[in-house]
Amino acid sequence: MEENNVLKKFTTAQFLNFCLGFFGLQFAWQMRIILSGPVTEGLGASPFIYGLIWLAGPFTGMVVQPLVGTLSDKTVSPFGRRRPYLLGGALLASIALWIFPNSAGVANLLHNITGLNLPSWSALLIAAIMIWVIDACVNVAQGPYRALIPDVVPREQHSLANSYISLAIGLGSVVAAGTAPFLKWVFNYQMSIPAQFVMAALAFTLGMLWTCITIKEHQTKREQLKEVAVAEVKEDTFIDSLKNFFALAPEVSKICTMQFFTWIGTMCMMIFFTQYSVHTVYGVPDLSNVSAEVNAQFAAANLDGTNFSSICFAIFNLICFVVAIPIGILSAKYGNKKVHIISIITMIFAYLGMAFCHDLKFVAAMMGVAGIGWASICALPFAMLSKYIKKGTEGSVMGIFNIFIAGPQVFVCTLVAWFINMCIIKLDGGLINYHWEYSFIIGAVCLAAAALIANSVKE
């Protein structure tokens, strides 16, 4: 093919270098997931308020990535099409990552400067704004980063390139989650939450800066890029981008539907696993409306369940890291579809195992098995889609594709959460609990639907 005559095959060292920026991105994103709850709770956020704040991710994903993806396709600059968004998103997110855990101090500073009597919830408002800024900027960088793959990597290596991105996601998550516990365990040093966010900001900025310096976009002359941008100006509207996206090939709609059900299943685990660990595995009742005495009675079990959840997520992402490259190699040999379906099936069995057996070691093992599916989810759907991308539309296509990742998160945060809230378990002493394990059953059903749809995709 013509692009194969232009783009040279990547070596292993080049792939590792290529995914370093995504390692920094995932490091920052994982830190936001792990520690945003304790920060906002300390500022007075109820679970419902935190849920509204958490929706920043899917909403910015559905809006920001398609728009930025389209803009990056048409960007003409001495720095390339994608790199301004990679570095710009990282720098703005890093500022927000620093401000977020210091929101109370920022509110006090504003009070001292302005002399205004700010309301008690002002610090929480600042924290919420910073969460939205972080999520928006992560999406600003993420879409163009995915679009960079068809820009610089030969088509026959797209699956492998996405597998290296999956490797970076797994490794970034493990390092982000494990650094503070490791320092505590080895050196008896407890890293503060603000320090961990500074670490995430540095990882994001330095990783993206390295990618922007070392990855050269293969561009034609600047004048030719301007001609392309002018020729495509009539397609600037989001509706036109959507029409062009679904006109790529009949299989694109199937891949998008597959992705929608896949991410409902994935988020059923990611959003509710900590509650499942605390309340189902460790048997801690709901503590949202109990006395201080009851809260103190279950404090140790509550902490143990939270720590167990962190360990399981580390195992989950570690397995993702280990199998990411083998999945890319196998998909190159046997096809993306076959490998992806098998990986999803392993995740389904892991979900069903956790739904019906709550033994500590078994649950930890099943999270490791689920990590196989996660490695495939992070790579192969993008590789399947990339085969239908027209030259010059990579950013807009990846941005629109992200709607089918972000949209399911809204579904899980609302309808699935409401369903679990209705499934009450009455305990002795007037205490209650919920069937958190039902989230795994719902997730398994949705993953099964995704596997069936994947089987209908023609490669």
CATH-level-4 superfamily name? MFS general substrate transporter like domains
Q: Spell out the helices and strands N to C.
A: HHHHHHHHHHHHHHHHHHHHEEH
Rounded radius of gyration (Å): 22 Å
Largest sheet: 2 strands, antiparallel
Sheet with the most strands: spatial strand order? 1-2
Helicity, in percent? over 70%
CATH architecture heading: Up-down Bundle
Distance between the termini: 17 Å
CATH topology: Growth Hormone, Chain: A
CATH class designation: Mainly Alpha
Class per helix and strand makeup: mainly alpha
Query: Total number of helical segments?
Result: 21
* Poorly predicted regions: 1-5, 220-235
Secondary structure topology:
Blueprint: H1 2-6, H2 12-18, H3 20-42, H4 47-54, H5 56-74, H6 83-99, H7 103-114, H8 122-152, H9 158-187, H10 193-214, H11 222-231, H12 238-246, H13 250-281, H14 292-297, H15 299-334, H16 336-356, H17 360-377, H18 380-386, H19 394-401, H20 403-422, E1 424-426, E2 432-434, H21 438-456
Antiparallel strand pairs: 1-2
